Task: structure prediction
Amino acid sequence: MTELSHLPATPRTGLRRWYRGRPALPAKRVQFDQPLLPWLFLMPQLAVIFVFFYWPSAQAISSSFYLEDPFGFGATFVGLENYGAALGSGEYRKIAGFTALFTLLVTVFSLGLGLLFAVKADKIIRGRATYRTALISVYAIAPPVAGLMGMMLFDQHIGPFVTLAGWFGWNMQVGIDYWDTAFALVLVSVWKQVPYNFIFFLSGLQGIPASVREAALIDCRNGLTRFRTAILLLLAPTAFFLLIINITYALFDTFAVIDVMVKDKPANNPITLVYKVYSDGFRGNDIGGSAAQSVILMVVVLILTLVQFRWLERRVHYG
Amino acid sequence: MKRTFAMAAIAAIAAQAAHAETTAITWWHGMGGANEQVINQIAEKFNAAQQACAITPVSKGTYEEALASGIAAFRSGEQPNVIQIFDAGAATIMNAPGATIPAEDLLAQNGHAFDREAFIPGVRWFYADAEGKFVGMPFNSSAPIMYVNDEALAKAGVSAPKTWAEFAEIAPKLKEAGYIPMTASQLTWMFFENYFSRNNVEMASNTNGYDSFDGTRLLATQPQMIAFWTRLKEWHDNGLFGFYGAGWADNQKPFEEGKVALWIGSSGSFGGLSQTASMPFSATFMPYDETAPDGDKSTFIGGAALFAFSGKPDDQNACTADFFNYLTTTEVQAFYHQATGYVPITTAAYEKSKADGWYEQHPQAEVGIQQLMLPQGEWSRGYRLGFYPQIRVIEEREFNKLFSGQTTVEDAFKAIETEGNELLSRFARTSG
Result:
């Protein structure tokens, strides 16, 4: 970055801040003679975004204002009634509360454990490949398979975890008891995500120059302080990226784990908002209500993303 | 599955090459495992029996996924000719008359004779309109019946209960003998919907929803229902009734392992159970409520029916009609019944299975049909409730809460009624 330091500082606003605070110089400036040509090159990407994101989003927004017969024969405009029905329902608010808690727990534990394992694995010299492969391999397991394994481990009749909990006097009833199921869901979801964080943290750690580590070693003897003041700061860009990915994972990608573990019948078991959208839309065929819920979810994610970039990213120092 | 499908596709293409005039039709269903194999066999038999039509079955996953796929396909004009719709989803498709051609009309238009009386009484109404015209073609039908662990009953020295009072009497003895006296799978089907039918109690206003969707109210808080569930909850608290979650297998598994004396399951569970049960078992009717003034009636038909989607060319509709007609033949019905454990839907198929000596080898296989042939009460013909899959979700939630001690019987059924009625009135407005 030093060769760019003579550039005047550009105001850190909007998208520019997203890209390392300064506009990067293109390797080679390309001039197009025809103004339409670059758009032509962009077309495939734009088409994909339009077809798979903007169009369905627009459809969801328009459906959310209607009460519709599933087969599409009749639709009545009901204004904001679908939103009112969702937000006014105690059940929906309870699910929203659980989703927030679930996202928090999954993100904190999978980031924390991923970092811990990465730091420990980074120090190992003998047999490092074996350790790393062992830790990473879990990532190759697909979420539904992870859910299936969780279902067996926590099965009331044959699950070893239930037996284990029994030794500590815990009558674990995954599938009947709300919090027991919540515990199992968090555990499986975290287990599934730790390797992903591990890979990124490990490569982040390996990207820290030896000279910086040595300099830190001279300045400070305490390993923990050294980690907190030097290493962690240099890992911040990785951690910030992973934070966003993990929140998205907990909110959306845990769907398969939940679906398999509640065996397609949530009953009184905890579920997340995405599962509720699926349940009402695809099982219940309530298209308007489900669309309103997915718009609410879209708004939540939008706000979350804005907050992250507005407040958190400022504190991240990109090397 | 993929391979079977690919092979079926190749077979279909090959057949098409050989007979240029062959009309291809598709059949979406929600069956997996052994039952899917039987569906493929039926399609093969139909394709081999005639030259004009070739049907290709496609599994869409579960019943609910089949319904959702069918809806999505219909909305984009890509619907299959035939779709399998399960009991709880029947109201959804029957509320959209333009989406389907009633099975009876389709058969008549294509010159097939159709006799409602040929069907066993239990299946005549569930997929029919208020006048009794078959809209859906009953296909795989089942009834909730009670499976009996013979060893357990012998050990306790009791016989299988016919009523709930008899169950209350023998349950402590079964417990003493070291068994969980009873479990039941899918309580929504067994102890909610079929409590109404078996004991002839009104389930919903507007003749269980048949007359109109407008103003239909769910009658979940009927005093008999509350009284029965209060007993059930007491049995649960005293260790006489085991509940292990909303999943079907959660409650079947301990029975298979021989830990449970009585299990309420589906007549269609028989095939699988014969392979998995670790002990000899028999089957009998689901007990009825001795306090009901007009009880011991037939249960609602469970399972699913086939519907013909509209918007298809005439030659394909003719093939669909041929296929429906083929399905009702005695040979096919008897084959399907014996291969899967679902009940035969025509009297003739039942008689044929009897004549084949099938029930001498498999007495359990006859219980479902016998229960469905019991006299029908005013309220045991069927129910037509919109958004019913979602209402079942509410029931499942409240039942789990009840058995984990988070709610009372009264509150649980009040919640089911209130939230269920909100959904019903929403549904009534979707068609307007």
